[in-house]
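Progress note, sequence design subtask.
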C-alpha cells in the first residue's frame, strides 16, 4: 500500500528485485546526492487506497 514507515520496499529489496527479476521499472535512479526509488507499479495510489479502505469498511461478516 506504500504506507510511510510500514513498508518492506527499501533500497536493498529494490536492488534484489532488479537483480533477480530483471524488472526495468523498479531499478533505482542514482541522483547526484542520493538514491531515488521510482514509484513501483505494484503500489496503489492514494485514490485507489481510499476505494479499497471504503470497500473493506463496508463488508459485513456474520458471527456464528
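Output:
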Amino acid at each position: 500500500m506504500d504506507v510511510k514507515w510500514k513498508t518492506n520496499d527499501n533500497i536493498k529489496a529494490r536492488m534484489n528485485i532488479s537483480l533477480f527479476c530483471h524488472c526495468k521499472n523498479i531499478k533505482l535512479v542514482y541522483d547526484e546526492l542520493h538514491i531515488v526509488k521510482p514509484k513501483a507499479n505494484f503500489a496503489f495510489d492514494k485514490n485507489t487506497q481510499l476505494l479499497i479502505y471504503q470497500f473493506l469498511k463496508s463488508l459485513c461478516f456474520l458471527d456464528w
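The chain has one domain: 11-58. Work on this subtask will continue into the next period as scheduled.
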